[in-house]
Amino acid sequence: MPKAPENWAAGSGWPSATVRRPHCRPGQRPRPLLHTPARLPLGRCASRQPDLDPNPHRSSDPRITKPTVLFLCQHNAGRSQLGAALLEILADDRYTVTSAGLSPADAVNPSIAATVAELGLDISARIPRAVTVEELQTADIVIAMKPGLKLPVTPAREFLEWAFPDPTDWSVENVRPLRASVEKQITELLLNR
Fold first, then answer.
1. I want to staple 99 with a disulfide (CB 3.0 to 4.6 A). Which of 37, 71, 106, 192 is the partner?
2. Per residue in 59-115, pLDDT tens?
């Protein structure tokens, strides 16, 4: 029976903690193995600590790993507020969500606020605001809730244009189907990636 190499732990079938890894760069100091058969290291070099969390959005430092989603519409009073609120509710803190407009209104549309309140989130005190160039350049995903918006700059990363009607003078009963459509779009195109 052949003898096991010295660098293999007895009976484990896995290298001991000080195994030299020939695939590491020359001169690189080997580190202890941080894996078991079910949790293999990632990348070219096994001395790198593996990513133990399969969901990177649940990191201890959310500023680094949570993608930013920016919802846009003309006045930031209806569609963009609705989209941002629904993503906040549905995404379980996987995204940093903001909304803005090109020419902000004075207040959030009361019908939009009422339909979102039915889901348990109060957005009636939110103040519509203007989008900034910096936001367009740094957001991971920019979603225009109205096609053809004249943006000050082209978004630097992913840009989506969704076509939803303007609910400016709509009643709560008329906004509910819009809310369902926006929720479906968010689920299909953002959450099911």
1. 71
2. 455 556 799 999 999 999 999 999 999 999 999 889 999 999 999 999 999 999 999
Closest Cα partner for 80 from 95, 62, 102?
102
Which value, to the nearest 10 degrees, does the dihedral of the CA atoms of residues 70, 73, 76, 79 take?
Answer: -90
φ and ψ at residue 142, rounded to 5 degrees: -110, 125
Given 3.30.9.10, 2.30.180.10, 3.40.50.2300, 3.40.50.1780, which CATH number is that of 67-191? 3.40.50.2300
AA letter at 12: S
In DSSP terms, which residues pair with 159 in a beta bridge?
142
What are the sequence ranges of the domains in the chain? 67-191
Query: How far apart are the C-alpha atoms of 144 and 102, rounded to whole Å?
Result: 11
pLDDT tens profile 146-165: 999 999 999 999 999 999 99
